[in-house]
Fold:
Amino acid sequence: MSESTDAWYYAAGETRMGPYPLAELKLLIAAGRVQPATMVWTAGMVQWAPAGSVAALFPIGMPPPVPALPLGYAMPVPSGEEHGLGTRMLIPVGRSGWAIAAGYAGLFATLVIFAPVALILGIIAVVHLRRRSDLHGWGRAIFGLVMGAIFSILLVVGIVAVIVG
Structure:
């Protein structure tokens, strides 16, 4: 098979794409649209084959090309959205650290003495989450805020009762 073959096809799912000149197919490979596992065919081939096994497309011993990023393009920072709900609930992916601290402090607020800490951390977490819309953790922040407020009120009532009584 010669490199001058000028009618290349590739499979995109069940759809046959092409014909493409060899130079254009190489551009599609460089752009990442045609991968080594993508099935390709041209005249002279007995059957469709993975592009990575065709020396004219992927020379033996050469790693597949990495698509170049356009100038001025920055790699996106993972937001955690690519993780499933279960993973996001167990691991603090994309969560505010303040919200996590407020949530745990809210649990300890039932010991009353930790209630003011939960209230303060809940307020800080809410302020932090309002400034950083890319982070999650509103439930934990509100939980810390509510538990801190409830048990702080109980703490104040208890202190007043001891002083007055």
Summary: Residues 1-72 form a domain with the Dna Ligase; domain 1 fold (CATH 3.30.1490). Strands lie at 8-12, 15-20, 39-42, 49-50. Residues 74-80 have pLDDT under 50 and may be disordered. The first helix runs from residue 22 to 30.
